[in-house]
Write a structure and sequence with these properties.
Order of helices and strands: HHHHEEHEHH
Radius of gyration: 28 Å
Number of helices: 7
CATH topology of the domain at 77-178: Alpha-Beta Plaits
Low-confidence stretches: none
Largest sheet: 3 strands, mixed
Distance between the termini: 87 Å
Shape: elongated
Structural class: mainly alpha
CATH architecture of the domain at 77-178: 2-Layer Sandwich
Strand content: 5-15%
Length: 181
């Protein structure tokens, strides 16, 4: 009888201690959605900023956005082209890569080593771009070295003359790349 009474008393003391420690914990649970702190979400100086990408909105917050077209998606084409090129160059079989990203197409011209077949290199380039770009993009890749210069020339031509109609120039490069498909 004394053992049962002792066990019950010990259990009550442990339960009270657990409840007391929960009440004294003034740190909010960081995973509790009720403890959301907007100032933490926009802290650009945080050392962990580059470890995760996170955004959370309610429909009301999204609808209250005062931008003229808040649902428009912006994509930095230069950043995407740079990312595709850098990923491909991590493969030692690619010696030089030029990437151009438009509204609907990605053009990738490269020089590859003799250790990789032409078709495998083209597939690698296309799959790399496909893994980064939205699914509606058309991706063209070629191992024709002259197209590296053509892509670069097109880029600088558009930079110099923003009114330049680049569609026919892009189509010329695409037609040259389709010969490799």
């Amino acid at each position: 009888m004394k053992n049962i009474l002792g066990i019950i008393l010990l259990s009550l003391i442990m339960m009270l201690a657990a409840c007391a420690s929960d009440q004294n914990n003034s740190d909010p649970d960081p995973l509790d959605p009720q403890n959301r702190k907007p100032e933490m979400e926009s802290n650009t100086n945080s050392p962990s900023r580059d470890q995760l990408g996170f955004v959370r909105y309610t429909q009301d917050e999204f609808d209250q956005n005062n931008e003229p077209d808040p649902k428009a998606i912006h994509m930095d084409r230069n950043e995407i082209a740079d990312m595709i090129t850098r990923i491909l160059l991590q493969n030692p079989d690619f010696k030089e890569v030029a990437t151009l990203v438009t509204d609907e197409e990605a053009l990738i011209a490269f020089e590859a080593s003799n250790n990789i077949s032409k078709q495998t290199a083209i597939e690698n380039a296309e799959k790399t771009a496909l893994s980064i770009l939205p699914g509606y993009y058309t991706i063209h890749a070629s191992d024709d070295n002259s197209l590296i210069q053509n892509i670069e020339t097109l880029h600088y031509s558009v930079m110099e003359d923003e009114n330049l109609d680049m569609e026919p120039l892009v189509q010329t490069i695409v037609d040259s790349m389709k010969k490799d498909d």
